[in-house]
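Batch job 17 of 40 flagged for manual review because the log was empty.
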Amino acid sequence: MEQRGRCARTDRQHWAAVAFSLLWIGASAQIRYSIFEEVQNGTVVGNIAKDLGLDRITLRDRGYRIVAGSTEPLFALNQNDGILYVSRRIDREEVCARSIPCLINLKTLLENPLEIHYVSVEILDINDHSPVFQEKEKKLEISESALPGARFQLPPARDPDVSHYSIQQYKLSQNEHFRVEVKDRGEDRKVPFLVLQKQLDREVSGKYRLHLTAVDGGKPAKSGATEIIVDVIDVNDNSPVFTKESYTATVQENVQIGTVVIQVIATDLDQGANGEIIYSFGNEVDLKLLDLFSIDRQTGEIQVTGLIDFEKSKSYEIDIQASDKGPVPLTAGKSVTITVSDVNDNAPEIEVTSFSRLIQEDCKLGTTVALISVSDLDSGINAKVICSIKQDVPFALLPSIQENMYTVITKSHLDREIISQYDITITAKDAGEPAFSTEKTIKVVLSDVNDNSPEFLLSRYMFYVSENNVPGVSMFSVKATDCDDGDNAIIMYSILRDSTGDEKLSSFLSINSDNGHISALKSFDFETLKSFQFQVVATDCGTPSLSSNVTVNMFILDQNDNPPVILYPVSGNGSAEGVEEIPRNVNAGHLVTKVRAYDADIGYNGWLLFSLQELTDHSLFALDRYTGQIRTLRSFTETDEAEHKLVILVKDNGNVSLSATATVTVKLVEPKEAFATSDVKGSAKDEEDNNVTFIS
C-alpha cells in the first residue's frame, strides 16, 4: 500500500504538470485528468476552478457542482475551492475491466449564467494482480511417435492488469524434450505452446512433470504457475524377447494328461496391447506333436495332451513363437526340446482264484478264506511283486509254495455282533522305481451263530395300574433285544409261573409272546391288593435257544370307588338317622353331637368333608366341615321349636366325588329331663369316641 501511495503521489505531480488539458467549446469546457487506481480516499485529482480560471468569489456567487457521473460516485467536488478529490477506493479492474484507456466522465455545472464543463478522469493501472492459471495441473497425452517440432497448446494464465502489467512471458522448467513458445494474439493475450524438441521413448520414461510459469511486466514482476503432466502414449516399436536363450525339459512317459512340461516366457517393453503377448506353436510344427502337446496362449505353459510313450519317441523338438497384440503384431521365435525318460509303466495284476464269501463267526483259527495269484507284465526288478493286506483285520496273507501265490486265512477269533463283514484290501506292489501298486478288495461276510442271550432294556420294570382296570386290555409291555441275526434274534415272551407267593397272582396275567404286551384277565381292587411282582422270560428261536428273565413290580393305584360310610348316626336301609336331646338352657357353642364316617379309599379319595344340606333354622346350629361336630350358635328362646331336623352331606375329594347323607333330629327338653339321660348318653358317647377311627 505504501508502494502504491508513492506511485500515486509521483504520478499526481506529473499529470498536474503535463497531463492536464483544457478545451473550450462555446460556453462549455472539456477537462481531463489522470490518477492511479488504489490511491487513498481524499487524494486530490485536480483543481477545476483553477484550471478554468475561476476564483473563490465566482464559485461562491454562481455555485459550482457535479450534476452527472457514475451511479456510485468515485469523486467529490469541494464547492468552496473547486478541488476534485477521490471519495472512495478505486479498483481499475472493477471499474473498467480491461478497457484502455479507463475514463470516468463527469458533468459539472456553473450557474448564473449557465456553464457546463465536462471532466474526464483516466484511471491508471498499477500492478496489483498476479497471473493465475485456471487449473493447478494440465494433462497431455503425446505419442512416442510424435516428431520434434510438434506443438501442443497449453492453458494460458489470466491477469486482470493491462499493458505492461499484464502477462509478458511464459517460462518452462528445464527439460531436454520440451520448450515453450508464446503466440501473441493481441489485447494482452499471449498463448503458450509446448514444443517437442526431442523424440520421446515411453520405454525410457512414460511420464513427464513440467512447471509452466506466467510472468507479468511489473517491477518487481509477479508470476503464477501450473503443472503440465505429459503421459507418453505407447507405440508398438518393440518385439517380444524370450527370457532364455534355450528351453529344455524332461518328461516321463505315461505322464498324466494336463501335466505342465515347461513354461516359456517372453517380455515386451511396449504398453497395453502392444506389450501383451500370446504364445503359439510355429507354422512348421509336425501335426503329430499337436496331438501330444498344447501351449497356453496366455501363460506360455506347454502341457501334455496325449499319451507319451518312450518306446515310440525319445525326444521332441517344438517351435514356439511369441506375438504381441499390436495393430501390426511383432513376433519372436524359439525352439523347445523335450526329452522323454523311461519309467516302470506296468502295474501288478491281482486275481482271486478261489474265494469263500461266507464263513461262520465261530470258525477255527487258520481257516482258509481265499486263494490269490499276482502277476506283472514288466520284467526284472519291475516285475518283483510284494503282497500285503492293507487294513488291520483278523486275517493274514500267507505266501504259497508256488511263486506269486498267496492264501488268505483267519488269524484271530471273529464276532459277528461286533463286525458282521470285512472288506479285505490286498495290495500288490512291484519293486520298480517309482513303484507301481494295485489293490483288490474282497468282501467276507460272517454267518451268525446263536451265541447271545436276549437282553431286556431294563434290569427291573416297575408299572402302575389303576384298580378297576378293564380285563383283557394291554396295560404295559416289556422289551428285550438280541444281538444275533435271523432266527437267533427272534424273541418270544412268557410269564414264569409257579404256585408260591405272588406268583399265584401271575395266573391272572397274560403276555403277548410276540411283542411283550401284558394284559390282566381280571380287574384289580386296591383295597384288596396293592402290589405284587412276577417274572417275564425272553427266549430266542436259535438252536439251541437261549433265554433270560426280568422281574416286574406291579403297583395298583387307588381309584375313588368307595363312598363314605356313616358310623353315627346309625346307618340303615342306605341312610343314617339319629336323635339327640339337649337341654333348652345350653349356651352358644354347646356340642350337640359329632357325625362319624370313614372311606375305604386313600388320599384325596378318602378325605371327607361335612356340610349341612338341610336345616330348619340356620341361626341355631353350625357344622364343622372337617370334624363333623354340630354345635349351637346361640342360646335357645321360648319361641324356638322343640324339635329340629338337620340333614348332613358327607362326601370325599375324588375327581368324581362320592357322598352319603345322615339325618340328625335335635330335641329340646327341659333341664330336669335332660339330666336324667345325660350321664348314660355321655358315657356311651365317650366309649364310642374312643373305639372308632375316622378317615378324613
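Reviewer: the log was empty due to a logging misconfiguration, but the result itself is present. The first helix runs from residue 2 to 18. Unflagging and moving on to job 18.
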